[in-house]
UniProtKB/TrEMBL annotation:
Top-level taxon of origin: Bacteria
Coiled-coil regions listed in the entry: none
Segments of this protein annotated with the region Disordered: 84-103
The protein's name: DUF1876 domain-containing protein
Entry-linked Pfam families: Rv2632c-like (PF08962)
Lineage: Bacteria, Bacillati, Actinomycetota, Actinomycetes, Kitasatosporales
InterPro entries reported for this sequence: Rv2632c-like, Rv2632c-like_sf
Length: 103
């Protein structure tokens, strides 16, 4: 006997995300590899320390990683928009921004 649709257990997926940081003073590079099981997506970003700033590698790591995560978010939104278009979904204006611009 099959169960009604509402009583099915939720589907669970696991995506693996690896974040690699490398530092070559004054630059920090972050590389993200996202494995969804069906696709592998990558994004990269950098941070550069000003010669006038104190040497604090954690700040470079945070900036580069944050920028790479934002780039990955944009990549995922573009992929979703392409997938929606391929399935015949109604026309959209494109991916939503990850945040609103300040006025």
């Amino acid at each position: 006997m099959t169960r009604p649709l509402s009583s099915r257990p939720p589907a669970v997926k696991e995506w693996r995300l690896n974040l690699y940081l490398s530092e070559r003073d004054p630059d920090t590079t972050a590389r993200i590899v996202l494995d969804t099981g069906d696709n592998v997506l990558e994004s990269c970003a950098e941070a550069r320390r000003s010669p006038y700033d104190s040497d604090n590698p954690d700040i470079g790591d945070e900036l580069a990683a944050g920028r790479a995560l934002i780039a990955m978010g944009r990549t995922l939104l573009r992929a979703a928009a392409g997938d929606m278009k391929a399935t015949g979904a109604t026309e959209t204006d494109g991916p939503s921004p990850l945040w609103l611009t300040r006025e």
